Amino acid sequence: MEDQDTQPPEGGSGNVTRDPLSRAVPVDNPEIGEILACETGAYLDVRNWIGGWRYEQLIAQRVDIREKLDGAPRFRCPLCGVAVYLASNRHKRFYFKHQVEDGSCPAQTRHPLSAEEILARKYHGLRESAPHRRIKALIVRSLEADPQYASVQVERQWRSAHDPAARRRPDVQAAGPAGRLAFEVQLSTTFLHVVVARRAFYRQEGGLLVWIMGGFDPAYRRLTTDDLLFTNNSNILIVDEETAAQSEAARRFHVRCHFRRPERDGDRIADTWESHIVPFDELTADREGQRCWHLDYDGEAAAMRAAIEGELRAALFAFWIGREPDTRPDKGVRRAWAGLRSSFAGRGIALPSAPDDDSGFVALMNGLASAKEGRPVGWHFKHLIEVGHRIADAYPQHVAAFGHALLYFEKAALVERQDRSGKWKRRRSAIRDSLERGEPDFRPDPDSLPVIGFVMPGVEEKLTKLMLKVAA
Ligand SMILES: [Zn+2]
Hints:
Blueprint: E1 25-26, E2 34-37, E3 42-45, H1 46-51, H2 55-68, E4 75-76, E5 84-88, E6 93-98, H3 106-109, H4 115-126, H5 130-144, E7 150-154, E8 158-159, E9 167-168, E10 172-176, E11 179-186, H6 192-205, E12 208-213, H7 223-231, E13 235-238, H8 241-250, E14 254-265, E15 268-279, E16 284-286, E17 291-293, H9 297-322, H10 331-345, H11 359-373, H12 384-394, H13 399-408, H14 412-418, H15 423-436, H16 449-455, H17 459-468
Parallel strand pairs: 1-6, 11-12
Antiparallel strand pairs: 2-3, 2-4, 5-6, 7-10, 8-9, 10-11, 13-14, 14-15, 16-17
Helix pairs in contact: 5-8, 9-10, 11-12, 11-13, 16-17
The site of zinc ion (ZN) has 7 residues, from loops.
Protein backbone atom coordinates (compact mmCIF):
# COMPACT_ATOMS: atom_id res chain seq x y z
CA MET A 1 0.00 0.00 0.00
CA GLU A 2 2.60 2.52 -1.02
CA ASP A 3 0.65 5.41 -2.47
CA GLN A 4 3.61 7.51 -1.48
CA ASP A 5 5.77 5.84 -4.11
CA THR A 6 3.34 4.95 -6.83
CA GLN A 7 2.44 8.41 -8.07
CA PRO A 8 2.45 8.51 -11.84
CA PRO A 9 5.64 10.23 -13.00
CA GLU A 10 5.13 13.88 -13.80
CA GLY A 11 6.49 14.92 -17.16
CA GLY A 12 7.30 11.29 -17.83
CA SER A 13 10.82 11.46 -16.47
CA GLY A 14 12.29 9.57 -13.49
CA ASN A 15 13.00 12.64 -11.40
CA VAL A 16 11.45 16.04 -10.83
CA THR A 17 13.05 19.32 -9.93
CA ARG A 18 10.78 21.64 -7.99
CA ASP A 19 10.90 25.41 -8.15
CA PRO A 20 12.06 26.40 -4.61
CA LEU A 21 9.38 29.13 -4.51
CA SER A 22 6.51 26.86 -5.55
CA ARG A 23 4.07 25.36 -3.07
CA ALA A 24 5.14 22.11 -1.46
CA VAL A 25 2.94 19.23 -2.62
CA PRO A 26 1.74 16.36 -0.43
CA VAL A 27 1.13 12.88 -1.79
CA ASP A 28 -2.50 12.34 -2.75
CA ASN A 29 -3.40 9.74 -0.20
CA PRO A 30 -1.01 9.76 2.76
CA GLU A 31 -1.08 6.82 5.17
CA ILE A 32 -0.69 9.23 8.06
CA GLY A 33 -3.45 11.74 7.39
CA GLU A 34 -3.12 13.65 10.64
CA ILE A 35 -0.23 14.42 12.95
CA LEU A 36 -0.09 15.54 16.56
CA ALA A 37 2.02 18.68 17.07
CA CYS A 38 3.76 17.90 20.36
CA GLU A 39 4.48 21.53 21.22
CA THR A 40 0.90 22.78 21.02
CA GLY A 41 -1.17 19.63 21.42
CA ALA A 42 -2.98 20.43 18.16
CA TYR A 43 -3.87 17.89 15.48
CA LEU A 44 -2.86 18.95 12.00
CA ASP A 45 -4.15 17.77 8.68
CA VAL A 46 -1.03 16.54 6.90
CA ARG A 47 -2.03 17.62 3.40
CA ASN A 48 -2.96 21.12 4.55
CA TRP A 49 0.16 21.43 6.64
CA ILE A 50 2.50 20.39 3.86
CA GLY A 51 0.69 22.48 1.26
CA GLY A 52 0.99 25.51 3.53
CA TRP A 53 4.75 25.82 2.93
CA ARG A 54 6.85 26.82 -0.04
CA TYR A 55 9.06 23.99 -1.26
CA GLU A 56 12.23 25.65 0.08
CA GLN A 57 10.61 26.17 3.50
CA LEU A 58 9.39 22.63 3.75
CA ILE A 59 12.87 21.29 3.02
CA ALA A 60 14.12 23.34 6.00
CA GLN A 61 11.27 21.97 8.10
CA ARG A 62 12.18 18.47 7.04
CA VAL A 63 15.71 18.90 8.35
CA ASP A 64 14.50 20.39 11.63
CA ILE A 65 11.94 17.60 12.18
CA ARG A 66 14.62 15.00 11.49
CA GLU A 67 17.10 16.62 13.86
CA LYS A 68 14.64 16.63 16.77
CA LEU A 69 13.35 13.14 16.09
CA ASP A 70 15.44 11.33 18.68
CA GLY A 71 15.26 13.96 21.42
CA ALA A 72 11.99 15.89 21.57
CA PRO A 73 10.08 14.94 18.44
CA ARG A 74 7.93 17.69 16.95
CA PHE A 75 5.24 15.42 15.60
CA ARG A 76 3.76 12.09 16.48
CA CYS A 77 1.31 9.74 14.86
CA PRO A 78 -2.01 10.25 16.67
CA LEU A 79 -2.93 6.58 16.37
CA CYS A 80 0.16 4.89 17.74
CA GLY A 81 2.10 7.71 19.40
CA VAL A 82 5.30 6.93 17.48
CA ALA A 83 7.33 9.97 16.38
CA VAL A 84 7.03 10.78 12.69
CA TYR A 85 9.28 12.54 10.19
CA LEU A 86 8.81 14.11 6.83
CA ALA A 87 9.70 12.01 3.81
CA SER A 88 9.45 12.63 0.11
CA ASN A 89 8.87 10.34 -2.84
CA ARG A 90 10.86 10.54 -6.05
CA HIS A 91 8.38 13.08 -7.38
CA LYS A 92 9.24 15.39 -4.49
CA ARG A 93 5.84 14.95 -3.00
CA PHE A 94 5.78 14.78 0.76
CA TYR A 95 4.30 12.58 3.47
CA PHE A 96 5.04 11.52 7.04
CA LYS A 97 6.65 8.25 8.06
CA HIS A 98 6.86 6.55 11.44
CA GLN A 99 10.28 6.61 13.08
CA VAL A 100 9.81 2.91 13.75
CA GLU A 101 7.87 0.95 11.21
CA ASP A 102 7.08 -2.40 12.72
CA GLY A 103 3.64 -2.73 11.18
CA SER A 104 1.86 -2.19 14.49
CA CYS A 105 0.33 1.18 13.67
CA PRO A 106 -3.25 0.98 12.42
CA ALA A 107 -2.51 3.82 9.98
CA GLN A 108 0.28 1.83 8.39
CA THR A 109 -1.58 -1.42 8.05
CA ARG A 110 -4.71 0.53 7.13
CA HIS A 111 -6.38 -1.64 9.65
CA PRO A 112 -9.84 -0.23 10.09
CA LEU A 113 -10.31 1.31 13.53
CA SER A 114 -13.66 2.35 14.88
CA ALA A 115 -14.22 6.06 15.38
CA GLU A 116 -14.13 5.40 19.10
CA GLU A 117 -10.77 3.63 18.93
CA ILE A 118 -9.31 6.45 16.89
CA LEU A 119 -10.56 9.01 19.43
CA ALA A 120 -9.20 7.02 22.34
CA ARG A 121 -5.79 6.71 20.67
CA LYS A 122 -5.71 10.39 19.84
CA TYR A 123 -6.59 11.16 23.42
CA HIS A 124 -3.64 9.14 24.63
CA GLY A 125 -1.48 10.79 22.00
CA LEU A 126 -2.18 14.15 23.60
CA ARG A 127 -0.35 13.00 26.71
CA GLU A 128 2.82 13.38 24.71
CA SER A 129 2.25 17.05 23.98
CA ALA A 130 4.24 19.78 25.71
CA PRO A 131 1.31 21.73 27.22
CA HIS A 132 -0.03 18.51 28.64
CA ARG A 133 3.29 17.63 30.26
CA ARG A 134 3.66 21.18 31.57
CA ILE A 135 0.23 21.26 33.24
CA LYS A 136 0.78 17.79 34.68
CA ALA A 137 4.03 18.95 36.24
CA LEU A 138 2.30 22.02 37.71
CA ILE A 139 -0.38 19.82 39.30
CA VAL A 140 2.29 17.60 40.82
CA ARG A 141 4.19 20.65 42.16
CA SER A 142 0.99 22.02 43.69
CA LEU A 143 0.01 18.73 45.34
CA GLU A 144 3.48 18.03 46.67
CA ALA A 145 3.59 21.46 48.25
CA ASP A 146 0.55 20.61 50.36
CA PRO A 147 1.10 18.18 53.27
CA GLN A 148 -2.61 17.20 53.13
CA TYR A 149 -1.98 15.19 49.97
CA ALA A 150 -0.02 11.96 49.85
CA SER A 151 0.90 9.34 47.26
CA VAL A 152 1.12 11.81 44.41
CA GLN A 153 1.63 9.67 41.31
CA VAL A 154 1.92 10.46 37.63
CA GLU A 155 0.45 8.22 34.94
CA ARG A 156 0.11 5.25 37.25
CA GLN A 157 -2.66 2.74 36.93
CA TRP A 158 -5.70 3.03 39.12
CA ARG A 159 -7.07 -0.48 39.35
CA SER A 160 -10.74 -0.90 40.10
CA ALA A 161 -11.54 -2.28 43.52
CA HIS A 162 -14.66 -3.90 42.05
CA ASP A 163 -13.57 -5.22 38.70
CA PRO A 164 -10.02 -6.54 38.35
CA ALA A 165 -10.17 -6.03 34.59
CA ALA A 166 -11.08 -2.33 34.84
CA ARG A 167 -8.36 0.24 35.23
CA ARG A 168 -7.59 3.81 34.31
CA ARG A 169 -4.40 5.74 34.04
CA PRO A 170 -5.13 9.25 35.26
CA ASP A 171 -2.55 11.93 34.52
CA VAL A 172 -2.02 12.54 38.22
CA GLN A 173 -3.49 10.89 41.27
CA ALA A 174 -3.25 11.61 44.97
CA ALA A 175 -4.85 10.75 48.29
CA GLY A 176 -6.32 13.76 50.05
CA PRO A 177 -8.31 14.50 53.20
CA ALA A 178 -11.56 13.78 51.33
CA GLY A 179 -10.45 10.60 49.57
CA ARG A 180 -8.69 9.57 46.39
CA LEU A 181 -8.42 12.05 43.57
CA ALA A 182 -7.71 11.55 39.89
CA PHE A 183 -6.62 14.59 37.89
CA GLU A 184 -6.96 14.71 34.14
CA VAL A 185 -5.60 17.52 32.05
CA GLN A 186 -8.08 18.68 29.46
CA LEU A 187 -6.64 20.06 26.27
CA SER A 188 -8.25 21.28 23.12
CA THR A 189 -9.69 18.20 21.54
CA THR A 190 -13.20 16.86 21.95
CA PHE A 191 -13.48 13.65 23.86
CA LEU A 192 -16.89 13.83 25.41
CA HIS A 193 -17.25 10.07 25.37
CA VAL A 194 -13.95 9.78 27.22
CA VAL A 195 -15.19 12.28 29.79
CA VAL A 196 -18.38 10.28 30.24
CA ALA A 197 -16.66 6.89 30.54
CA ARG A 198 -14.19 8.20 33.08
CA ARG A 199 -16.86 9.73 35.27
CA ALA A 200 -18.58 6.35 35.51
CA PHE A 201 -15.33 4.60 36.49
CA TYR A 202 -14.37 6.99 39.29
CA ARG A 203 -17.91 7.22 40.59
CA GLN A 204 -17.95 3.46 41.02
CA GLU A 205 -14.54 3.65 42.70
CA GLY A 206 -15.69 6.27 45.20
CA GLY A 207 -12.94 8.55 43.91
CA LEU A 208 -13.25 12.00 42.42
CA LEU A 209 -12.19 12.86 38.90
CA VAL A 210 -11.02 16.45 38.56
CA TRP A 211 -10.51 18.04 35.15
CA ILE A 212 -7.83 20.68 34.98
CA MET A 213 -7.30 23.08 32.11
CA GLY A 214 -4.24 25.12 31.29
CA GLY A 215 -6.18 28.30 30.61
CA PHE A 216 -9.67 29.57 30.01
CA ASP A 217 -11.28 32.50 28.28
CA PRO A 218 -15.03 32.72 28.86
CA ALA A 219 -15.47 34.75 25.69
CA TYR A 220 -13.79 32.16 23.52
CA ARG A 221 -14.85 28.65 24.38
CA ARG A 222 -14.60 25.52 22.34
CA LEU A 223 -17.42 23.02 22.47
CA THR A 224 -15.13 20.69 24.43
CA THR A 225 -14.68 23.33 27.08
CA ASP A 226 -18.43 23.69 27.28
CA ASP A 227 -18.74 19.93 27.73
CA LEU A 228 -16.60 20.28 30.84
CA LEU A 229 -18.11 23.55 31.96
CA PHE A 230 -21.69 22.39 31.95
CA THR A 231 -20.93 19.00 33.46
CA ASN A 232 -19.00 20.68 36.26
CA ASN A 233 -21.62 23.08 37.55
CA SER A 234 -20.25 25.88 35.36
CA ASN A 235 -16.88 25.91 37.13
CA ILE A 236 -13.58 25.45 35.29
CA LEU A 237 -10.41 24.69 37.22
CA ILE A 238 -7.03 25.93 36.06
CA VAL A 239 -3.55 25.16 37.32
CA ASP A 240 -0.91 27.55 36.04
CA GLU A 241 2.42 29.04 37.11
CA GLU A 242 0.76 31.57 39.39
CA THR A 243 -1.43 29.07 41.22
CA ALA A 244 1.46 26.61 41.59
CA ALA A 245 3.61 29.36 43.10
CA GLN A 246 0.79 30.26 45.47
CA SER A 247 0.33 26.59 46.43
CA GLU A 248 4.00 26.40 47.30
CA ALA A 249 4.04 29.68 49.22
CA ALA A 250 0.94 28.74 51.25
CA ARG A 251 1.79 25.03 51.45
CA ARG A 252 -1.81 24.50 50.39
CA PHE A 253 -3.00 23.35 46.95
CA HIS A 254 -4.65 26.27 45.17
CA VAL A 255 -6.46 26.35 41.84
CA ARG A 256 -7.82 29.14 39.72
CA CYS A 257 -11.53 28.76 39.31
CA HIS A 258 -13.50 30.41 36.53
CA PHE A 259 -17.20 30.24 37.15
CA ARG A 260 -20.50 31.72 36.14
CA ARG A 261 -22.42 33.65 38.76
CA PRO A 262 -26.17 33.89 38.15
CA GLU A 263 -27.65 37.34 38.64
CA ARG A 264 -31.21 38.49 38.60
CA ASP A 265 -32.13 40.87 35.86
CA GLY A 266 -35.80 41.60 36.46
CA ASP A 267 -37.59 38.32 35.92
CA ARG A 268 -34.66 36.80 34.04
CA ILE A 269 -31.30 35.38 35.00
CA ALA A 270 -28.16 36.89 33.55
CA ASP A 271 -24.67 35.50 34.05
CA THR A 272 -21.44 37.16 34.90
CA TRP A 273 -18.06 35.46 34.75
CA GLU A 274 -15.72 35.56 37.70
CA SER A 275 -12.41 34.04 38.49
CA HIS A 276 -10.69 33.51 41.84
CA ILE A 277 -7.73 31.58 43.11
CA VAL A 278 -9.09 29.32 45.84
CA PRO A 279 -7.76 26.50 48.05
CA PHE A 280 -8.64 23.20 46.44
CA ASP A 281 -9.80 21.71 49.76
CA GLU A 282 -12.47 24.42 50.00
CA LEU A 283 -14.17 23.34 46.78
CA THR A 284 -17.42 21.45 47.16
CA ALA A 285 -16.99 17.88 45.94
CA ASP A 286 -19.90 15.88 44.55
CA ARG A 287 -18.73 12.30 44.12
CA GLU A 288 -22.06 11.08 42.75
CA GLY A 289 -22.00 13.69 40.00
CA GLN A 290 -18.17 13.64 39.72
CA ARG A 291 -18.12 17.40 39.99
CA CYS A 292 -16.35 19.93 42.17
CA TRP A 293 -16.95 23.63 42.31
CA HIS A 294 -16.34 26.92 44.03
CA LEU A 295 -19.69 28.53 43.29
CA ASP A 296 -22.78 26.32 43.07
CA TYR A 297 -24.10 27.79 39.83
CA ASP A 298 -26.84 25.20 39.28
CA GLY A 299 -28.08 25.49 42.84
CA GLU A 300 -28.08 29.29 42.91
CA ALA A 301 -29.64 29.60 39.47
CA ALA A 302 -32.36 27.08 40.37
CA ALA A 303 -33.16 28.94 43.59
CA MET A 304 -33.27 32.22 41.68
CA ARG A 305 -35.47 30.73 38.99
CA ALA A 306 -37.81 29.32 41.65
CA ALA A 307 -37.98 32.70 43.38
CA ILE A 308 -38.74 34.49 40.11
CA GLU A 309 -41.41 31.95 39.21
CA GLY A 310 -42.89 32.10 42.71
CA GLU A 311 -43.16 35.88 42.46
CA LEU A 312 -44.73 35.70 39.01
CA ARG A 313 -47.22 33.09 40.16
CA ALA A 314 -48.11 35.24 43.16
CA ALA A 315 -48.42 38.31 40.91
CA LEU A 316 -50.86 36.56 38.57
CA PHE A 317 -53.03 35.39 41.47
CA ALA A 318 -52.86 38.80 43.17
CA PHE A 319 -53.97 40.43 39.93
CA TRP A 320 -56.82 37.99 39.47
CA ILE A 321 -58.03 38.15 43.06
CA GLY A 322 -57.85 41.96 43.09
CA ARG A 323 -59.49 42.50 39.73
CA GLU A 324 -63.09 43.66 39.47
CA PRO A 325 -64.95 41.42 37.05
CA ASP A 326 -67.32 42.87 34.45
CA THR A 327 -65.88 46.40 34.64
CA ARG A 328 -63.85 48.18 32.02
CA PRO A 329 -60.23 47.86 33.11
CA ASP A 330 -58.63 51.26 33.75
CA LYS A 331 -55.18 52.30 32.62
CA GLY A 332 -53.40 50.92 35.70
CA VAL A 333 -55.09 47.53 35.34
CA ARG A 334 -54.27 47.40 31.64
CA ARG A 335 -50.64 48.23 32.36
CA ALA A 336 -50.42 45.57 35.11
CA TRP A 337 -51.88 42.98 32.75
CA ALA A 338 -49.48 43.96 29.97
CA GLY A 339 -46.58 43.45 32.41
CA LEU A 340 -47.83 39.98 33.36
CA ARG A 341 -48.38 39.07 29.72
CA SER A 342 -44.87 40.03 28.81
CA SER A 343 -43.35 38.07 31.71
CA PHE A 344 -45.38 35.00 30.81
CA ALA A 345 -44.55 35.39 27.13
CA GLY A 346 -40.87 35.28 28.16
CA ARG A 347 -41.61 31.78 29.43
CA GLY A 348 -43.44 30.77 26.28
CA ILE A 349 -46.87 31.09 27.88
CA ALA A 350 -49.46 33.15 26.02
CA LEU A 351 -52.01 35.05 28.10
CA PRO A 352 -55.01 36.71 26.38
CA SER A 353 -54.43 40.32 25.33
CA ALA A 354 -56.99 41.53 27.90
CA PRO A 355 -57.99 39.65 31.06
CA ASP A 356 -61.63 39.39 29.98
CA ASP A 357 -60.99 38.55 26.33
CA ASP A 358 -61.66 34.87 26.62
CA SER A 359 -64.49 33.60 28.82
CA GLY A 360 -62.86 30.16 29.01
CA PHE A 361 -59.67 31.69 30.38
CA VAL A 362 -61.69 33.79 32.84
CA ALA A 363 -63.42 30.64 34.10
CA LEU A 364 -60.15 28.79 34.41
CA MET A 365 -58.51 31.60 36.38
CA ASN A 366 -61.62 32.04 38.53
CA GLY A 367 -61.47 28.33 39.32
CA LEU A 368 -57.76 28.29 40.16
CA ALA A 369 -57.88 31.49 42.22
CA SER A 370 -61.00 30.27 44.06
CA ALA A 371 -59.32 26.96 44.88
CA LYS A 372 -56.24 28.81 46.09
CA GLU A 373 -58.27 31.21 48.29
CA GLY A 374 -60.82 28.67 49.46
CA ARG A 375 -63.63 31.05 48.47
CA PRO A 376 -65.27 32.13 45.21
CA VAL A 377 -63.14 34.56 43.19
CA GLY A 378 -64.52 36.32 40.09
CA TRP A 379 -68.08 35.02 40.49
CA HIS A 380 -70.65 36.15 43.02
CA PHE A 381 -71.13 32.80 44.71
CA LYS A 382 -71.13 32.11 48.41
CA HIS A 383 -69.30 28.78 48.52
CA LEU A 384 -66.34 27.26 46.77
CA ILE A 385 -68.41 24.23 45.76
CA GLU A 386 -70.61 26.46 43.60
CA VAL A 387 -67.53 27.38 41.59
CA GLY A 388 -67.00 23.68 40.92
CA HIS A 389 -70.55 23.16 39.71
CA ARG A 390 -70.38 26.24 37.54
CA ILE A 391 -67.21 25.07 35.84
CA ALA A 392 -68.56 21.55 35.39
CA ASP A 393 -71.74 22.97 33.81
CA ALA A 394 -70.33 25.65 31.56
CA TYR A 395 -66.58 24.99 31.17
CA PRO A 396 -66.17 21.21 31.28
CA GLN A 397 -62.73 21.51 29.64
CA HIS A 398 -61.47 23.12 32.87
CA VAL A 399 -63.13 20.93 35.47
CA ALA A 400 -60.16 18.53 35.70
CA ALA A 401 -57.86 21.51 36.28
CA PHE A 402 -60.19 22.74 39.01
CA GLY A 403 -60.23 19.30 40.63
CA HIS A 404 -56.42 19.23 40.65
CA ALA A 405 -56.34 22.78 42.02
CA LEU A 406 -58.44 21.66 45.00
CA LEU A 407 -55.83 18.99 45.74
CA TYR A 408 -52.90 21.28 45.00
CA PHE A 409 -54.14 24.02 47.33
CA GLU A 410 -55.51 21.50 49.86
CA LYS A 411 -59.14 22.57 49.60
CA ALA A 412 -60.67 19.18 48.76
CA ALA A 413 -61.84 18.62 52.34
CA LEU A 414 -63.46 22.07 52.40
CA VAL A 415 -65.50 21.29 49.29
CA GLU A 416 -66.42 17.91 50.74
CA ARG A 417 -67.84 19.62 53.84
CA GLN A 418 -69.83 22.01 51.63
CA ASP A 419 -71.18 19.07 49.63
CA ARG A 420 -74.12 18.33 51.96
CA SER A 421 -76.24 16.67 49.32
CA GLY A 422 -73.38 14.56 47.92
CA LYS A 423 -74.07 16.00 44.47
CA TRP A 424 -70.45 17.08 43.94
CA LYS A 425 -69.18 13.69 45.01
CA ARG A 426 -71.40 11.90 42.46
CA ARG A 427 -70.52 14.41 39.82
CA ARG A 428 -66.82 14.07 40.50
CA SER A 429 -66.87 10.33 40.14
CA ALA A 430 -68.88 10.55 36.90
CA ILE A 431 -66.35 13.04 35.51
CA ARG A 432 -63.47 10.83 36.55
CA ASP A 433 -65.04 7.79 34.89
CA SER A 434 -65.64 9.73 31.72
CA LEU A 435 -62.02 10.89 31.65
CA GLU A 436 -60.76 7.38 32.38
CA ARG A 437 -62.80 6.05 29.49
CA GLY A 438 -61.15 8.64 27.26
CA GLU A 439 -64.41 10.36 26.37
CA PRO A 440 -64.15 13.93 25.07
CA ASP A 441 -66.77 15.51 27.42
CA PHE A 442 -64.38 16.72 30.15
CA ARG A 443 -61.11 16.38 28.30
CA PRO A 444 -58.70 19.16 29.35
CA ASP A 445 -58.12 21.98 26.90
CA PRO A 446 -54.56 21.62 25.58
CA ASP A 447 -54.15 25.41 25.17
CA SER A 448 -54.65 25.92 28.89
CA LEU A 449 -51.96 23.44 29.98
CA PRO A 450 -48.91 25.77 29.93
CA VAL A 451 -50.45 28.33 32.27
CA ILE A 452 -51.86 25.60 34.53
CA GLY A 453 -48.45 23.93 34.67
CA PHE A 454 -46.84 27.21 35.57
CA VAL A 455 -49.17 28.17 38.41
CA MET A 456 -49.39 24.60 39.75
CA PRO A 457 -46.06 22.87 39.04
CA GLY A 458 -46.50 19.16 38.34
CA VAL A 459 -50.18 19.36 37.37
CA GLU A 460 -49.58 19.81 33.65
CA GLU A 461 -48.24 16.25 33.35
CA LYS A 462 -51.32 14.80 35.05
CA LEU A 463 -53.70 16.73 32.82
CA THR A 464 -51.71 15.79 29.72
CA LYS A 465 -52.15 12.14 30.60
CA LEU A 466 -55.93 12.62 30.87
CA MET A 467 -55.99 14.55 27.62
CA LEU A 468 -54.20 11.79 25.74
CA LYS A 469 -56.62 9.11 26.82
CA VAL A 470 -58.73 8.24 23.81
CA ALA A 471 -61.98 6.34 23.90
CA ALA A 472 -61.44 2.73 22.91
ZN1 LIG B 1 1.08 5.42 13.82
